[in-house]
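Today's session is about reading a structure prediction critically. Students often jump straight to the picture, but the first step is always the sequence itself: look for stretches that repeat, for charged clusters, for runs of hydrophobic residues. Only then move on to the predicted structure, which in these notes is written as discrete structure tokens rather than atom positions. Here is the chain we will use throughout the hour.
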Amino acid sequence: MQQIIISTRDQETSDLILTAFRQFPGLMPYAVETPELTEAARNSACSAIVTDLDPDQAGHSDQLRELQRVAPNAELCLISKGKRSGRLAQQKREFNLFTTIQRPINAFDVARRILRLQSHLTATRPATTGV
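Below is the predicted structure for this chain, in token form.
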């Protein structure tokens, strides 16, 4: 099972993303509160982190960099409001983002991105067992 950490500041978004991930066999999503995200990433063998931290907001870019440091092998997926494509491309490079899920959440788009993530994880790393 590939462990996926979901951390959003909005409970409805968290529930929607968790439900979407649970539809894909081999992925084991679990939610953590945003203040506990870095510690959860440090103490787990997670394959991916899905978060709604905003790189343009004070403190969030530092937390994203810290996530990269403590979980360098985890794919980082960002949930964000629609942004200009130039700024989004810059953030993808700066934070080595695997993908970005745009708000408002579109179920088809989320499923497509999860399928792409699942395929990537299956191809690039062995599944882990346990939490």
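Discussion point for the tutorial: Residues 107-124 form the longest helix (18 residues).
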